[in-house]
Amino acid sequence: MTIVEEKPQPATGAEEKKLPIDLVSNAGFVVPGNNAFGNTFRDYEANSERKDTVEEFYRKQHMYQTVEFVKKMREEYGKLNKAEMSIWECCELLNEFVDESDPDLDEPQIEHLLQTAEAIRKDYPNEDWLHLTGLIHDLGKVLLHPSFGQLPQWAVVGDTFPVGCAFDESNVHHKFFQENPDNDNPKYNTKHGIYSEGCGLDNVLMSWGHDGYMHMVAKENKTTLPSAALFIIRYHSFYPLHKERAYKHLMNEEDEENLKWLKIFNKYDLYSKSKVRIDVEKVKPYYLSLTEKYFPAKLRW
Ligand SMILES: [Fe+2]
Ligand SMILES: [Fe+2]
Protein backbone atom coordinates (compact mmCIF):
# COMPACT_ATOMS: atom_id res chain seq x y z
CA MET A 1 0.00 0.00 0.00
CA THR A 2 1.44 3.37 -0.96
CA ILE A 3 1.60 5.88 1.83
CA VAL A 4 1.47 9.54 0.93
CA GLU A 5 3.59 11.89 3.00
CA GLU A 6 2.01 13.05 6.22
CA LYS A 7 3.79 16.35 6.64
CA PRO A 8 1.18 19.15 6.83
CA GLN A 9 1.33 21.46 3.83
CA PRO A 10 0.48 25.14 3.47
CA ALA A 11 -3.26 25.72 3.19
CA THR A 12 -3.01 27.76 0.04
CA GLY A 13 0.11 26.13 -1.36
CA ALA A 14 0.35 24.92 -4.91
CA GLU A 15 1.55 21.55 -3.66
CA GLU A 16 -1.24 19.00 -3.78
CA LYS A 17 -1.84 15.66 -2.17
CA LYS A 18 -1.26 13.06 -4.84
CA LEU A 19 -3.78 10.28 -4.78
CA PRO A 20 -2.30 6.87 -4.03
CA ILE A 21 -4.48 4.95 -6.44
CA ASP A 22 -3.98 1.58 -4.75
CA LEU A 23 -5.54 3.00 -1.59
CA VAL A 24 -8.77 3.40 -3.49
CA SER A 25 -9.15 -0.23 -4.36
CA ASN A 26 -7.87 -1.39 -0.98
CA ALA A 27 -10.42 0.54 1.02
CA GLY A 28 -12.23 -1.98 3.18
CA PHE A 29 -15.23 0.19 3.92
CA VAL A 30 -18.51 -1.68 3.57
CA VAL A 31 -21.49 0.30 2.35
CA PRO A 32 -24.61 -0.34 4.42
CA GLY A 33 -27.81 -0.80 2.41
CA ASN A 34 -30.16 1.47 4.30
CA ASN A 35 -30.33 4.77 6.12
CA ALA A 36 -31.88 5.47 9.50
CA PHE A 37 -35.36 5.58 7.92
CA GLY A 38 -35.00 2.20 6.18
CA ASN A 39 -34.63 3.74 2.69
CA THR A 40 -31.66 3.74 0.31
CA PHE A 41 -29.41 6.79 0.69
CA ARG A 42 -30.19 10.11 -1.03
CA ASP A 43 -33.51 8.84 -2.33
CA TYR A 44 -35.46 12.08 -2.65
CA GLU A 45 -38.62 10.36 -3.91
CA ALA A 46 -38.89 7.75 -1.16
CA ASN A 47 -41.96 8.17 0.99
CA SER A 48 -40.08 8.84 4.19
CA GLU A 49 -41.48 11.13 6.83
CA ARG A 50 -38.88 13.62 5.64
CA LYS A 51 -39.97 13.86 1.99
CA ASP A 52 -42.23 16.92 2.16
CA THR A 53 -39.84 18.81 4.39
CA VAL A 54 -37.00 18.08 2.01
CA GLU A 55 -38.95 19.22 -1.06
CA GLU A 56 -40.03 22.44 0.61
CA PHE A 57 -36.45 22.96 1.66
CA TYR A 58 -35.16 22.77 -1.93
CA ARG A 59 -37.94 25.04 -3.22
CA LYS A 60 -36.73 27.81 -0.91
CA GLN A 61 -33.04 27.09 -1.42
CA HIS A 62 -33.31 27.26 -5.22
CA MET A 63 -35.45 30.38 -5.09
CA TYR A 64 -33.33 32.43 -2.70
CA GLN A 65 -29.71 31.50 -3.46
CA THR A 66 -28.70 34.23 -5.90
CA VAL A 67 -25.39 35.93 -6.76
CA GLU A 68 -26.42 38.90 -4.67
CA PHE A 69 -27.31 36.77 -1.65
CA VAL A 70 -24.06 34.79 -1.81
CA LYS A 71 -21.95 37.95 -2.04
CA LYS A 72 -23.76 39.45 0.92
CA MET A 73 -23.21 36.33 3.04
CA ARG A 74 -19.54 36.05 2.12
CA GLU A 75 -18.98 39.63 3.13
CA GLU A 76 -20.82 39.30 6.43
CA TYR A 77 -19.31 35.98 7.52
CA GLY A 78 -15.88 36.84 6.14
CA LYS A 79 -15.56 39.23 9.10
CA LEU A 80 -15.18 36.19 11.39
CA ASN A 81 -16.47 38.20 14.31
CA LYS A 82 -19.15 35.80 15.59
CA ALA A 83 -17.19 33.74 18.10
CA GLU A 84 -13.83 32.51 19.31
CA MET A 85 -13.62 28.82 20.09
CA SER A 86 -11.66 25.66 19.50
CA ILE A 87 -12.62 22.99 16.97
CA TRP A 88 -13.83 20.67 19.72
CA GLU A 89 -15.96 23.36 21.35
CA CYS A 90 -17.59 23.85 18.00
CA CYS A 91 -18.31 20.10 17.71
CA GLU A 92 -20.13 20.28 21.03
CA LEU A 93 -22.07 23.38 20.05
CA LEU A 94 -23.18 21.76 16.82
CA ASN A 95 -24.46 18.77 18.67
CA GLU A 96 -27.70 20.66 19.36
CA PHE A 97 -28.83 20.50 15.74
CA VAL A 98 -30.26 18.03 13.26
CA ASP A 99 -30.03 18.63 9.52
CA GLU A 100 -33.52 19.08 8.07
CA SER A 101 -32.44 18.82 4.43
CA ASP A 102 -31.04 15.37 4.84
CA PRO A 103 -33.24 12.37 3.99
CA ASP A 104 -30.79 9.99 5.70
CA LEU A 105 -29.95 11.37 9.09
CA ASP A 106 -31.76 11.86 12.37
CA GLU A 107 -28.87 11.65 14.83
CA PRO A 108 -26.90 14.30 16.67
CA GLN A 109 -24.26 15.87 14.47
CA ILE A 110 -21.36 14.86 16.66
CA GLU A 111 -22.18 11.21 15.99
CA HIS A 112 -22.11 11.87 12.26
CA LEU A 113 -18.80 13.72 12.46
CA LEU A 114 -17.12 10.99 14.45
CA GLN A 115 -18.70 8.18 12.44
CA THR A 116 -17.28 9.75 9.28
CA ALA A 117 -13.85 10.39 10.79
CA GLU A 118 -13.56 6.96 12.40
CA ALA A 119 -14.66 5.11 9.27
CA ILE A 120 -11.98 6.95 7.28
CA ARG A 121 -9.40 6.29 9.99
CA LYS A 122 -10.06 2.59 9.80
CA ASP A 123 -9.43 2.42 6.04
CA TYR A 124 -6.75 5.13 5.75
CA PRO A 125 -4.88 4.93 9.08
CA ASN A 126 -1.97 7.09 7.92
CA GLU A 127 -3.95 9.97 6.43
CA ASP A 128 -4.50 11.86 9.67
CA TRP A 129 -5.41 15.04 7.75
CA LEU A 130 -8.33 13.13 6.24
CA HIS A 131 -9.52 11.97 9.68
CA LEU A 132 -9.58 15.57 10.85
CA THR A 133 -11.34 16.62 7.67
CA GLY A 134 -14.03 14.08 8.55
CA LEU A 135 -14.42 15.59 11.99
CA ILE A 136 -14.67 19.20 10.87
CA HIS A 137 -16.37 19.06 7.47
CA ASP A 138 -19.81 19.95 8.82
CA LEU A 139 -18.86 22.42 11.54
CA GLY A 140 -20.11 25.28 9.36
CA LYS A 141 -23.60 24.19 10.39
CA VAL A 142 -23.17 26.41 13.44
CA LEU A 143 -24.69 29.02 11.11
CA LEU A 144 -27.97 27.63 12.46
CA HIS A 145 -27.08 28.77 15.97
CA PRO A 146 -28.40 32.09 17.38
CA SER A 147 -24.86 33.40 17.98
CA PHE A 148 -24.17 32.94 14.28
CA GLY A 149 -27.24 34.69 12.97
CA GLN A 150 -29.49 31.62 13.13
CA LEU A 151 -29.67 31.35 9.35
CA PRO A 152 -32.58 29.41 7.84
CA GLN A 153 -31.86 25.80 6.84
CA TRP A 154 -31.84 26.66 3.10
CA ALA A 155 -28.84 28.98 3.73
CA VAL A 156 -26.88 26.38 5.65
CA VAL A 157 -27.42 22.83 4.42
CA GLY A 158 -28.42 20.84 1.34
CA ASP A 159 -26.63 20.28 -1.95
CA THR A 160 -24.65 23.25 -3.24
CA PHE A 161 -24.25 24.61 -6.78
CA PRO A 162 -22.55 27.53 -8.55
CA VAL A 163 -24.43 30.81 -8.88
CA GLY A 164 -23.62 33.27 -11.67
CA CYS A 165 -24.07 30.71 -14.44
CA ALA A 166 -26.87 28.44 -15.66
CA PHE A 167 -28.19 25.93 -13.10
CA ASP A 168 -27.31 22.49 -14.41
CA GLU A 169 -30.15 20.01 -14.78
CA SER A 170 -28.42 17.48 -12.57
CA ASN A 171 -29.19 19.64 -9.53
CA VAL A 172 -31.77 17.93 -7.34
CA HIS A 173 -35.30 19.42 -7.79
CA HIS A 174 -34.02 21.50 -10.70
CA LYS A 175 -37.54 22.75 -11.48
CA PHE A 176 -37.48 25.06 -8.47
CA PHE A 177 -34.78 27.22 -10.07
CA GLN A 178 -37.51 28.72 -12.23
CA GLU A 179 -38.33 30.90 -9.26
CA ASN A 180 -34.76 32.16 -8.88
CA PRO A 181 -34.41 35.72 -10.30
CA ASP A 182 -30.89 34.90 -11.63
CA ASN A 183 -32.50 32.33 -13.90
CA ASP A 184 -33.96 35.18 -16.00
CA ASN A 185 -30.84 37.33 -15.95
CA PRO A 186 -28.88 37.06 -19.24
CA LYS A 187 -25.65 37.81 -17.37
CA TYR A 188 -26.12 34.74 -15.21
CA ASN A 189 -28.15 32.23 -17.20
CA THR A 190 -25.69 30.98 -19.84
CA LYS A 191 -23.44 27.93 -19.54
CA HIS A 192 -20.39 30.03 -18.50
CA GLY A 193 -22.23 33.04 -17.09
CA ILE A 194 -19.70 35.29 -15.31
CA TYR A 195 -16.96 32.60 -15.50
CA SER A 196 -14.58 31.37 -18.16
CA GLU A 197 -13.65 27.90 -19.33
CA GLY A 198 -11.28 26.16 -16.85
CA CYS A 199 -11.22 29.15 -14.49
CA GLY A 200 -10.91 26.90 -11.41
CA LEU A 201 -13.53 26.32 -8.74
CA ASP A 202 -11.73 28.73 -6.41
CA ASN A 203 -13.00 31.49 -8.66
CA VAL A 204 -16.59 30.28 -8.68
CA LEU A 205 -19.25 31.60 -6.31
CA MET A 206 -21.04 28.66 -4.72
CA SER A 207 -24.48 28.82 -3.13
CA TRP A 208 -24.02 29.85 0.49
CA GLY A 209 -23.96 27.18 3.17
CA HIS A 210 -21.94 25.34 5.79
CA ASP A 211 -19.34 24.12 3.28
CA GLY A 212 -18.32 27.59 2.14
CA TYR A 213 -18.39 28.97 5.65
CA MET A 214 -16.19 26.26 7.17
CA HIS A 215 -13.76 26.59 4.27
CA MET A 216 -13.51 30.30 5.01
CA VAL A 217 -12.97 29.67 8.74
CA ALA A 218 -10.26 27.05 8.15
CA LYS A 219 -8.41 29.15 5.59
CA GLU A 220 -8.57 32.45 7.44
CA ASN A 221 -7.41 30.78 10.67
CA LYS A 222 -4.37 29.57 8.72
CA THR A 223 -4.87 25.84 9.01
CA THR A 224 -1.96 23.72 7.82
CA LEU A 225 -4.32 21.13 6.33
CA PRO A 226 -3.43 20.30 2.69
CA SER A 227 -5.30 21.74 -0.27
CA ALA A 228 -7.24 18.47 -0.74
CA ALA A 229 -8.73 18.92 2.74
CA LEU A 230 -9.86 22.45 1.99
CA PHE A 231 -11.34 21.26 -1.30
CA ILE A 232 -13.29 18.52 0.49
CA ILE A 233 -14.63 20.95 3.08
CA ARG A 234 -15.66 23.46 0.44
CA TYR A 235 -17.30 21.12 -2.08
CA HIS A 236 -18.52 18.09 -0.15
CA SER A 237 -22.18 19.07 -0.77
CA PHE A 238 -21.55 19.87 -4.45
CA TYR A 239 -23.24 16.66 -5.61
CA PRO A 240 -23.81 17.78 -9.22
CA LEU A 241 -20.01 17.87 -9.56
CA HIS A 242 -18.88 14.76 -7.76
CA LYS A 243 -21.79 12.58 -8.68
CA GLU A 244 -22.85 13.79 -12.10
CA ARG A 245 -19.65 15.43 -13.40
CA ALA A 246 -21.63 18.60 -14.12
CA TYR A 247 -19.84 21.99 -14.22
CA LYS A 248 -16.65 20.25 -15.38
CA HIS A 249 -15.92 23.15 -17.68
CA LEU A 250 -15.22 25.37 -14.65
CA MET A 251 -12.55 23.08 -13.20
CA ASN A 252 -8.78 23.40 -13.52
CA GLU A 253 -6.10 20.74 -13.09
CA GLU A 254 -5.73 21.11 -9.35
CA ASP A 255 -9.50 20.69 -8.97
CA GLU A 256 -9.30 17.42 -10.90
CA GLU A 257 -6.65 16.08 -8.51
CA ASN A 258 -8.55 17.16 -5.42
CA LEU A 259 -11.79 15.74 -6.76
CA LYS A 260 -10.31 12.25 -6.44
CA TRP A 261 -9.95 12.78 -2.71
CA LEU A 262 -13.42 14.25 -2.45
CA LYS A 263 -14.88 11.14 -4.06
CA ILE A 264 -13.17 8.97 -1.48
CA PHE A 265 -14.33 11.21 1.32
CA ASN A 266 -17.89 11.36 0.08
CA LYS A 267 -18.41 7.65 0.47
CA TYR A 268 -17.70 7.96 4.18
CA ASP A 269 -19.71 11.16 4.63
CA LEU A 270 -22.77 9.57 3.07
CA TYR A 271 -22.67 6.00 4.24
CA SER A 272 -21.49 6.49 7.78
CA LYS A 273 -24.92 7.91 8.55
CA SER A 274 -26.12 4.62 9.90
CA LYS A 275 -26.66 3.36 13.40
CA VAL A 276 -23.04 2.92 14.39
CA ARG A 277 -22.48 4.27 17.88
CA ILE A 278 -19.20 5.97 18.74
CA ASP A 279 -17.68 6.22 22.21
CA VAL A 280 -17.02 9.97 22.09
CA GLU A 281 -14.85 10.16 25.20
CA LYS A 282 -12.67 7.32 24.02
CA VAL A 283 -11.74 8.88 20.68
CA LYS A 284 -11.64 12.48 21.87
CA PRO A 285 -7.90 12.58 22.81
CA TYR A 286 -6.92 11.47 19.31
CA TYR A 287 -8.96 14.18 17.63
CA LEU A 288 -7.73 16.82 20.08
CA SER A 289 -4.17 15.95 19.07
CA LEU A 290 -5.10 16.43 15.40
CA THR A 291 -6.72 19.79 15.98
CA GLU A 292 -3.53 20.88 17.79
CA LYS A 293 -1.45 19.75 14.85
CA TYR A 294 -3.44 21.55 12.16
CA PHE A 295 -5.18 24.50 13.86
CA PRO A 296 -4.54 27.23 16.42
CA ALA A 297 -5.98 26.57 19.92
CA LYS A 298 -8.78 29.09 19.39
CA LEU A 299 -10.25 29.96 16.00
CA ARG A 300 -12.11 33.06 14.91
CA TRP A 301 -15.55 32.16 13.56
FE1 LIG B 1 -22.03 18.66 5.06
FE1 LIG C 1 -21.45 15.39 6.50
From TrEMBL:
Note on how the cofactor is bound: Binds 2 iron ions per subunit.
Which biological process annotations from GO are given for this protein? inositol catabolic process; L-ascorbic acid biosynthetic process
Q: In which pathway does it act?
A: Polyol metabolism; myo-inositol degradation into D-glucuronate; D-glucuronate from myo-inositol: step 1/1
Cofactor(s) needed by this chain: Fe cation
The EC number(s) attached to this protein equal 1.13.99.1
Matches recorded under Pfam families: MIOX
Recite the UniProt keywords alphabetically. Answer: Ascorbate biosynthesis, Cytoplasm, Iron, Metal-binding, Oxidoreductase
Q: What is its main location?
A: cytoplasm
Q: Which residues bind Fe cation?
A: 112, 137-138, 210, 236, 269
**GO CC annotation:** cytoplasm
Which cellular compartments is it found in?
Cytoplasm
Superkingdom classification of source: Eukaryota
- Catalyzed chemical reaction(s): myo-inositol + O2 = D-glucuronate + H2O + H(+)
Q: Which GO terms describe its molecular function?
A: inositol oxygenase activity; iron ion binding
Residues recorded as binding substrate, renumbered to this chain, are: 42, 99-101, 141, 158-159, 236-237
The family line of this record is: Belongs to the myo-inositol oxygenase family.
Q: This chain belongs to which protein, by name?
A: Inositol oxygenase
Q: Which species?
A: Elaeis guineensis var. tenera
Q: What is the lineage of its organism?
A: Eukaryota, Viridiplantae, Streptophyta, Embryophyta, Tracheophyta
